[in-house]
Every structure is written in C-alpha cells, then in structure tokens.
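Design review, sub-item: ligand-bound model
Attendees: FS, YL, KQ
YL presented the inputs for the zinc ion complex:
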Amino acid sequence: MRLSYNSQVMIPKELLEILVCPACKQALDYRPTPESLKCTKCHRVYAVKDDIPIMLVDEATVEP
Ligand SMILES: [Zn+2]
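KQ shared the predicted structure:
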C-alpha cells in the first residue's frame, strides 16, 4: 500500500482552529499568498515558515 503525501502541505484546519493571536487571543485569518496568519483584532500578521506559523509578537508585522 502506497501512501501519497502532498508536498505542499497547508496548515491543518485543526491547527488553525486552536491558534490564536498571542497578543490579544483572537482568532486568526489564514492567508495563502504569502502564507501567513492575520489577527482580526490587532491586525498583526504572523509569517508561516516551512508550514510552521511563527507565533511571536516580536516577529509579527502590523498591517493597517
Ligand atoms: Zn491580535
């Protein structure tokens, strides 16, 4: 039996549902291009590197 894996693995939905903004504990919006997570409250954008969200306030950028 051969298992096939998609090399372009996106962040699992289950993981997205438990991720919250570390600054204000709000839910995050997933954005595919470039892959990032944006907080709906404080508008911080968390980058995703190698399918790992960088959930650090210091590393986040803020969009208007
Ligand atoms: Zn936030």
